[in-house]
Every structure is written in structure tokens, then in C-alpha cells.
Amino acid sequence: MKICIINGPNLNLLGKREPEIYGSQTFKDYLKKLQGKYANIEVSYFQSNIEGELIDRLHEVGFSYDGIILNAGAYTHTSIGLGDAVKGIKTPVVEVHVSNIMAREDFRHISYISPNAKGCIFGFGLEGYDLAIESLLK
């Protein structure tokens, strides 16, 4: 099984940015734990702060991988293009957010990803990625 985790803007700052919201662990360290926990699965990772690069990556893996975990960051709430990319691929996508987006600013309550995703997980910190993998395994 092949799963690709795709993280959007500012998620490269996990562990540094607003630790009261996002925690103090870097995604790089967390990814090592995930890959160890799911050693029988190929878990690849891509992060970009550029919307078009995220769309390109979805297109690259969206017909050959078994699952995609997408945390589009702030693009979740603004990018019709990312929503269309998720809709246009065959691979199931689980939308993940570290924070509880429904408990934050009103503009974060809108997602252009959700209508095209297999499911959505938010508010469980980095553990949301574990939950997403588990959902793709079922």
C-alpha cells in the first residue's frame, strides 16, 4: 500500500509556529514515527507553500497511490483549484487539520477540499494523520 501525505503552506513550521495551537513537534520527527508505526506501508511526504505545486503533486500521485492525506493549510479555505484537483483524481483523499478549524475564525469553517474528500479529520493534533492512515486501511 502506498500513501502520500501532502502538507500545504506554513506546515513546514510545525514545532515552531504557534505551539499552543499546533504543538511543539516538527512534522519531520512525527513522520519518522508514522513510518516506523506503519512499516508495512510506503508513506511518502510532500510539503509546499505554493498552491500550484500542491495541485501538481495531487495529479502525480492521484492515479497510482492507494491513499492521500491532504492538509492544505490555509488553501483549504481559499483554493477552488485544490478542491477541483481532489475531485479530478481517483485516489481517495482524507482531509486533515491539526487544529479544530470549526473552533477558529469563521473563514476557516469553509473548505473547498471537504466536498471531494473521502472524509475529514480535524482537531486531534498530529494524531489526525494516524487516524487518516487507519481510515485508508479500512
Description:
- This protein is of the alpha/beta class.
- The protein has a single domain (2-137), classed as Rossmann fold.
- Helix content is 33%, strand content 19%.
- The chain is built from 5 helices and 5 strands.
- It has helices spanning 19-22, 27-37, 51-61, 80-88, 127-137, and strands at residues 2-7, 42-47, 67-71, 93-97, 119-122.
- The chain has a 5-stranded parallel sheet, with helices on both faces.
- α4 links the parallel β3 and β4.
- The longest helix is centred in the N-terminal third of the chain and has 11 residues, at 27-37.
- It holds the Pfam family DHquinase_II.
- The active site is at 22 (proton acceptor), 97 (proton donor).
- Substrate binds at residues 71, 77, 84, 98-99, 108.
- Keywords: Amino-acid biosynthesis, Aromatic amino acid biosynthesis, Lyase.
- Homododecamer.
* Shape category: globular
Give the number of DSSP strands: 5
Please trace the helix and strand order, writing H or E for each element.
EHHEHEHEEH
Number of helices in the DSSP assignment: 5
CATH class: Alpha Beta
Q: Strand order of the main beta sheet, please?
A: 2-1-3-4-5
Helix content: 25-40%
* Average pLDDT over all residues: 94
Reported for the largest beta sheet, the result is: 5 strands, parallel
Span between termini: 12 Å
Return the CATH topology. Answer: Rossmann fold
* Radius of gyration, whole Å: 14 Å
**Into which percentage range does the β-strand content fall?**
15-25%
CATH level-4 homologous superfamily = Dehydroquinase, class II
Structural class: alpha/beta
